[in-house]
Each structure stands twice: as structure tokens, then as C-alpha cells.
């Protein structure tokens, strides 16, 4: 079985190509979050009606009957003393995410999940449900027909189930009734939080913004934070941020190896390299050697002698003719390519990489899942 090798960045394998820094260019908006600009989670308790006998049972979900009775009484229907069988009704939790700048009357998607013993929410309709935030205030109300992606078909002696039928969604099922009151344009400073804190990337964000604006408004507070001082700027903060977030930025990508042993997947960063090392694992023999070469200038020239690195990797399988010889300037990706040609299993591959890391021969962070 060949190991699936995924490269996180393009690896240059030519001998003449120098090993460079792994820099991925993207936009500032794709690597930072603006402090205060976030979604707000909403939650509510509601009732789904119209189910085809797949709702909650009175024995296992008595709260469904109580909720149905309370709702009917509020609608003016007297059901005291009546024996209600809510097999076409289900109690559910309703959740939604309120965008930071959602206005009154706008709609958001909602998710509906059964909390009783209902078998399916297919064909059901959510009755008007208030959705509250963490502060206990109602910010939206939800209602509508539920879309269920799962399938549950049952007949005498047979049952076929696919996906989940006790949870569904209502596209644009909630209407915003209260705004968060967040006034972005009243701010005199903005905090940019890097999603992956890094000293180099944060410094580049600071430099890129100050160069583009022409005024030193950006200040790198720490590897994960860049502050913007807007007191000297004219115009709205929203317009300024719209210009800043689309600036191109080179992200410093760390040398990293991620191994998923269950799926046999290895993901490599571009700058993952190995030093001189020899390993024998099972019947696989690996040897990496470095032979520096001195380059002399032409006679009577003003050039200087320089030492050029020259590396060679040799992989052998004992008792067979399967030998993989890779080019100089060895990277870990070349090593793995050679091991793949010998049919090394994912488990053996992970063991080899772990051992090389323990010996200090791999210069990268190793993450094993």
C-alpha cells in the first residue's frame, strides 16, 4: 500500500534550486480577526409539529406534553384534563449565529435538534420560538418548515437508515428582532488578532499596513496582535479597514510535519529538511551523507573560494535490488518519495520519521494524530 503524500507547499526538487523560506502570499483579511467583529450564538427551546407519528412519546418525554399544553393554553385552547398523545410533536433546541452587523428584519439560518425520543423531524414545522443570547435577551425569533437530510424508512422486519433524521435546518428561518448595538465607526483604535500567532508574520503585517497607509498607525504588540491607532486618520474606520484587509501579505509558514496514522496521510511544510543520519528499520536501510565541495575561482580573478553543500541519500531494502537514489540537497519529501518506491507501510513511515526526529535529524515540528 502506497502512502498518500500531500505537500502543504510546492517543494523544489531540482539540485540547482536553493532552499528558500516558506512564504505563502495571501491577504491580511485571511489571516487576522478584528476584535469585536464576531458572531453571537443564540439558543431557544421550541416545539416541532406535523410529524407523521415520529415525535416524542409521553412516557419518555413528558416535558413535550407539558410544553404543548402550555402553548395551546396561551393560544386560548383549554386542554386541562385532556389526555394528549404528542406522537406527532417533538421538543427541540434551536440554535443560530447572529452576525456582528445584523440589522432588524434580516434573516439567519437556524439549526433544529431533537431533545426527546423522536425518531425523525422529517416533515415537521417549528412553531414560533424566541432565540436568546448569553445575556438572556431575545435577539431573534424562528419559525418554519424543517429540512432534514437524513432518511429513515421502516417496514415489517426491515429498517433502512441513512444520515441523521433527528436534526435539521431552516434556511433563513429566524428573523432578527434586536441588534447588538455594536458601533464600529465610533472606535479610535482597531485590534487585529492573528489566527496563527507568529513573530515574523505579525511584523510583516505591521510593515505592510504602515507602508500602504504612509503613516505609522500599526504597532505590533506581540506575535498574535497588531494594534491600529486611528486618532490621526480621517474618514471612517470601516473604509480604512476595507483598504487594509485586502493588502497582500507573505505568511511565514513554519517547518512542520503532520502525520495521521489512521489514514496514512503525511503533510509536509516546504522547509522541512534533514541532516546527516543513517537509519535501519526492519529490512529498510537509510543513509544520508553530506560531502561539501569547494568551488575555486578562476586564476588571477578576484573571486573567493566558497564551500557548497552536497548531500546524497541512499535507501536500500535488504535482500532485494530495490534501491532508490535521490538527488543532492536532500529534503524529507525526497526521503519519503524513496520510501514509497520500496512500498513502506504508513506505520513504518511514521516510525522512521519519529525516530529521525528523536535523533535530531529532522528540523521541523512533528505533530502525530
TrEMBL record:
GO terms for cellular component: bacterial-type flagellum basal body, distal rod, P ring; outer membrane-bounded periplasmic space. Its main location: other. Pfam families: FlgI (PF02119). One of its GO terms (biological process) is bacterial-type flagellum-dependent cell motility. It is found in: Bacterial flagellum basal body. Belongs to the FlgI family. This is Flagellar P-ring protein. The gene is flgI.
